[in-house]
Write a structure and sequence with these properties.
The protein is α+β, with helices and mostly antiparallel strands. The chain is built from 5 helices and 5 strands. The strands form 2 sheets. A 3-stranded antiparallel beta sheet has the order 1-5-2, with no helix packed on it. It has a two-stranded antiparallel sheet with strand order 3-4. The longest helix is centred in the first third of the chain and has 12 residues, at 2-13. The chain is elongated, with a radius of gyration of 22 Å.
């Protein structure tokens, strides 16, 4: 999805599409995109994309995607939060919180 947004942003920057074009049917919008040679190449690359890898890669589209960490610290009736009454759960939560989920991802077609 990041690559698709990159392609569309590039098309907007190159004035290949304008705001009103976003209300067109999908096929009509794509037809506008592929009229521009550079955007057509990016679109074709996007359509062939079928593999995603972790790590940095300068040869292919690479993006760091920040993620939100969410967890539930369940409340146990008359006892309090699970992290306060169960040391293993408290450790699991802490391990999750220190895990770096903002990895670089890159994709290509194989």
């Amino acid at each position: 999805m990041q690559y698709l947004s990159y392609v569309i942003k590039k098309a907007v920057d190159r004035v290949v599409v304008k705001e009103d074009d976003f209300y067109l049917q999908e096929k009509s919008f794509i037809d506008l995109l592929i009229k521009d040679k550079e955007i057509k190449q990016l679109w074709d690359d996007f359509r062939q994309l079928n593999c995603v890898y972790k790590g940095k890669n300068k040869e292919f589209f690479c993006k760091q995607i920040p993620t939100k960490k969410r967890y539930i610290d369940v409340y146990v009736e008359n006892k309090g939060r699970i992290s306060k009454i169960n040391k293993e759960m408290a450790q699991e939560i802490q391990m999750f919180l220190v895990t770096d989920l903002s990895e670089y991802l890159w994709g290509k077609c194989e």
